[in-house]
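Hello again, I could really use a second opinion on something today. I've been puzzling over a protein and I'd love to understand its fold better. I'm sending you its amino acid sequence along with the backbone structure tokens. It would help a lot if you went through both lines with me. I've dropped the whole record in just underneath, so have a look.
***
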Amino acid sequence: MSTATDRTDVIATAAPSASGSPDVSGSPAFVRAAAGLALIAFPVLFTAGIATSPPQASDASRDYVASLGADPWLTALSAGLLHYSWVAFALGVLAIIGLVRGPRGRVVVPLAAIVTSFSAIQLSGLLAYDWFIGAAANTVPLDQATTIFDTAVADPWVSTWLVSGRLVGFVGVPLVIAALARAGVVSWWLLLAPVIGFAGFFVPVSFGILAGMALSVAPMIVVGARLLQRASARVRREELAAA
């Protein structure tokens, strides 16, 4: 699978110093490298978080609450991995703006980065209720714990928080990939990953959903690698030479 169709690897990004010469500090390279590593870590943490999610008998609220209370250690592990996966995504995805070269993508890439970063922040915060609901399930009767959960989720503030957070889970990665493909940074073929991954929800095998979710977020590894490539000494020298 082709990972990129970036046609312009060299562009001047260094800001002039007070003397009029390009700024040769390592900050831009560091930011690119850190963001690239964050985006590569995102699918790994996310998949691990899904893989360790406590099993539940059904999608009913009562079964969900019961699953969180059944194994507090597993609940904490899964919630922690998922929380930090979205933190990594929220921080790393903003750096994709620096991958744009030329006029194409100058609007859609920043828009995709900002929208998905905001949604990821929302989603990461929502993981906190896994700890609280799990604790409730082990503190009060299950029916009361379920009532607490249903009442909290029904609140307009929480439901809006939930919907905005889920935006990145359903369309965030495809939106980022489509924007970067429009800018010529990655291949349009990468969109096949989330499309095929979504089909995993309908495959009647035990690991179908896990495999589908893992495949859906895998393209961010390519984006992270692109950022790491732009942080290399060779690219930095070419950028400074073009300044």
